[in-house]
Amino acid sequence: MSVIKSPAMEDLKKSFESWSIVSYMALSDMKARYKRSVLGPLWITLGTAIGSVGLGLLWSELLKVDAKTFVPTLTAGLIIWQLVSGVITESCSLYGRQASIIRNMNLPLGIHPMQLLCRHLINFAHNIPVFILLALALGVPVNANTLLFIPGLLLVALNLCWICMVVSILGARFRDFEHIVSTVIPLLMFVSPVFYRPAYLPFSQNIIWANPLSYFIEIIRDPLMGVAPPMFVIQVNLLMLVVGWIGAVWLFNKKHNRIAFWI
């Protein structure tokens, strides 16, 4: 049986066609998390605002960088990092958390990674106003390059989707994988351009660019700061998109029928 006509590919096709179900499940999950809360999801926005301003003022002093430049840079980096790290970390236990749904409902398995990604994109939408307000207050330039934020976010979302699929399958098969990822992700944060731009570093920038997550941050943050992302950042994101989806589809096709037994 060819990969194109395999049950796994049919599953992915049905998943992409079920965006109404995906969005409903993501919004329901969001509402359940903040049930009976006064501010609800606005706690996400408030927490990001306080953390960004506080850390921005602190790190601008440590790095001897103008706060007007550094605070919006850090804010954008933190917002993007929350999206990227949140998807990867939660992917490890994704199928385990959805075990009851998988056992009792005839839904495509590909829906669950998409639901997780959709929920974190909603979180991202709650956080981005923090950056917009800081950008307006601190005079971050808005120009034609700013519009590149949209295709950059789309490219990162598509990359995160295949990463979520791969990590969720590995997490379902190997229960220790969740602990490995939760240990590695905080370390990757400090070799990612979250608290600083690569140009701020007193040592080789190759350390930053050896981390694939750095390319996700820069392709979104550069347009937000009014700068076009470097061509090599775009090329690496496109390369990861093609190679990643090929590998993810192959793995999903090979292990699709075993996921329900693993959980």
Automatic annotation (TrEMBL):
UniProt superkingdom: Bacteria
Transmembrane stretches, start-end: 38-59, 79-96, 117-140, 146-170, 177-196, 232-252
Localization terms from the record: Cell membrane
Keywords, alphabetical: Cell membrane, Membrane, Polysaccharide transport, Sugar transport, Transmembrane, Transmembrane helix, Transport
Domain called ABC-2 type transporter transmembrane: residue spans: 29-222
Keyword Nucleotide-binding: no
Matches recorded under InterPro entries: ABC2_TM (IPR013525)
Membrane topology according to the record: Multi-pass membrane protein
UniProt family annotation: Belongs to the ABC-2 integral membrane protein family.
Database matches in PANTHER family: CAPSULE POLYSACCHARIDE EXPORT INNER-MEMBRANE PROTEIN CTRC, INNER MEMBRANE TRANSPORT PERMEASE
Name used for this protein in its record: ABC transporter permease
Taxonomic source organism: Acidovorax bellezanensis
